[in-house]
Amino acid sequence: MSRTAIAPTGVEKTFHPDQIIVSKTDRQGRLTYVNDLFVEISGYPESDLIGKPHNVIRHPDMPRSVFWLLWDRIVSGQEIFAYVMNLSADGSHYWVLAHVTPTFDTSANIVGYHSNRRTADATALSAITALYQRLVAEERRHSNAREAVEAGCRLLEQVLAEAGLSYDEYVWSLNNATVVAA
C-alpha cells in the first residue's frame, strides 16, 4: 500500500454532511483506529490502515506547510481545524474540514491524536483551493524538503498577515461565508 504509487485521478468523492470520518493515531501518527466511513471513503481495508502512518491518504497537492502547522499545534497540546484534501486508494480525492486534537492520559501527557472530519463547504473550498495551490507552487520551487516547508510557511504567514487573520480565523471565515481572498 504505497502512497506514492497512487496517481490522482481528479475524481472527487463526497460523503453525507451528517457523517463524520473518525481516526485515532499514536504519537507518531500511526493509525490505531478508523471508523467504517474512513475505510469506505479511503478505499483501503481496515487491516491495511491500522499501524500505518496517517499520511497514507495524503494527497500530493496538499501543502506540506499546512501539515507542519497542524503537527506544530497538536504536539504542543492544542487543537486545530484545517481543510485537508485526501487521496483514496483508487486515486480519487475527498475534501474534509478536519478537527484534530491531542489525546491525553491521566497525567496530562499526549498519548496520541484524534481527528473528526466533516464534509467541506463548496464556497470554502473555492478559497482554500486557491490558497493551497499558491502554497504548493511555492513549496515546489524548492528541491530541499525543509526549505520547501519553510517557504510555504512564510507564504502562509504572509497571506494571513495581509488578511489580518490567524489560520483559525481564516478557516472560520470560510465557514461563515465571509470568504477572504487568498
UniProtKB/TrEMBL annotation:
<feature type="domain" description="PAS">
    <location>
        <begin position="26"/>
        <end position="61"/>
    </location>
</feature>
<dbReference type="Pfam" id="PF08447">
    <property type="entry name" value="PAS_3"/>
</dbReference>
<protein>
    <submittedName>
        <fullName>PAS domain-containing protein</fullName>
    </submittedName>
</protein>
<dbReference type="InterPro" id="IPR035965">
    <property type="entry name" value="PAS-like_dom_sf"/>
</dbReference>
<dbReference type="InterPro" id="IPR013655">
    <property type="entry name" value="PAS_fold_3"/>
</dbReference>
<dbReference type="InterPro" id="IPR000014">
    <property type="entry name" value="PAS"/>
</dbReference>
